[in-house]
Fold this sequence. Notes:
Helix 1 (20-32) runs parallel beside helix 2. The longest helix has 16 residues, at 389-404. The chain has two domains: 9-182, Flavin prenyltransferase-like (Rossmann fold); 190-404, CoaB-like (Rossmann fold, 3-Layer(aba) Sandwich). The protein starts with 8 loop residues before the first strand and ends with a helix. The protein has helices spanning 20-32, 51-58, 69-74, 77-82, 94-102, 108-115, 128-132, 134-145, 172-182, 221-232, 260-270, 313-318, 338-349, 389-404; strands at 9-14, 36-41, 62-63, 86-92, 120-124, 149-150, 154-157, 164-168, 196-201, 205-209, 212-215, 236-241, 253-256, 275-278, 285-287, 307-309, 327-334, 353-358, 370-371, 373-377, 380-383, 387-388. It contains 14 helices and 22 strands. It is elongated and about 75 Å long. The strands form six sheets. It has an eight-stranded mixed beta sheet, sandwiched between helices. A six-stranded parallel beta sheet has the order 3-2-1-4-5-6, with helices on both faces. A two-stranded antiparallel ribbon has the order 7-8. With 405 residues, it is of the alpha/beta class. Bound molecules: cytidine-5'-triphosphate. Residues 200, 260, 278, 280, 282, 284, 310, 312-314, 330-333, 345 line the site of cytidine-5'-triphosphate.
Amino acid sequence: MSKLLQNKRILLVIGGGIAAYKSLDLIRRLKERGAMVRAILTEAGAQFVTPLAVGAISGERVFTSLFDLADEQDVGHIRLARDTDLIIVAPATADLLAKMANGLANDLASTALLATDKPVLVAPAMNPRMWDHAATRRNADRLRQDGIRFVGPNTGAMAERGESGLGRMAEPIEIADAAATLLGATGAGGVLTGRRVIVTSGPTHEPIDPVRVLANRSSGRQGHAIAAAAARAGADVTLVSGPVALPDPAGVKVVKVETAEEMLHAVGLALPADIAVFAAAVADWRVKRAKNSKVKKGKSGPPKLDLVENPDILATVATLDDNRPALVVGFAAETDDVVAHARKKLKRKRCDLIVANDVSPASGVMGGVSNTVHLVSAAGVETWPTMSKSDVAEKLIARFAELLG
Ligand code: CTP
């Protein structure tokens, strides 16, 4: 067993669900990987596993109450929340997720989760109807937006007889692996160490006049998440971004551009690279001659826009004779016949992989935090379950590393 979590301190919050029995195994898995694990057992959690069992397996004192004078003098809930590298909530019940999403702090677990400045990984576990309830979905979306990371839930049989569906807690090994990835401990310095990666992200803005632009809808979330994940995996990353309202990802070189032509130029300067990911929603057309002064409304009616086609950045890079990155990845945002269109795009643009997604208004992908993607390559089509854009990014990076070999 490689010690991917060597010297990492993990605070495990055990909520009140039948899956709590698996948390004992999770503690073993985390310790096998070298982590030091301290646990907070909620009052409901203690109905399923005992403090004695958790303490025996973790080899550490178990924390149960916010109002334990001895604990407060000794460690204190604020220090408990901060003297750690990661907090894992497993099982994360509907109640715990609701508390977290709303900033409630009425017991030790919720107070520690509100007081922490460390990454938090949650492993939801509940009945499929509870997971599917609008309130839980709202809470989960809010938590993803707040930067909380999710592992699972998985599909399968429930503890309740005859019930099955999406809601089973992820297996302890999956949770331990997710913890290692989140802490950037993916082995010998990360799966993309020594690789150069270019990512385009966001929309482009094509000026009509000094105050008006032609633009595509794109928050840049998916592209930025990919750049961030590549950096965490050890790559040397250049992110070429159109106008977005997102912070620059940590450890990434960010080049800010407005137009498609500027984006193409910046990508050219960032070459050579091993991987190029084109997640930007580039405007297909620009106004042939943008006006230098504001176009005024007048009797002659709306202005006629003389449009010309923008360069296709992806296709340009994918067809380079010299300097073509080993892995060229395109995105296909479609509103219908997602996979069929993506297949055509793969061939037409000569890329190695297309990440296709449905962006019809009903999907909520545009501007949202979740995504359902299909990976389309010469080898075939693979559809991934709906997950957060950061999880999509994490999985894509793992796949890119595999493809590069
Ligand atoms: N792309 C690009 N430069 C452009 C247009 C698109 O690099 N000028 C890239 C996008 O970043 C994305 C992929 O090409 O990776 C797909 O873009 P899309 O606009 O969906 O494809 P189109 O070529 O416009 O095809 P269609 O209009 O048929 O959807």
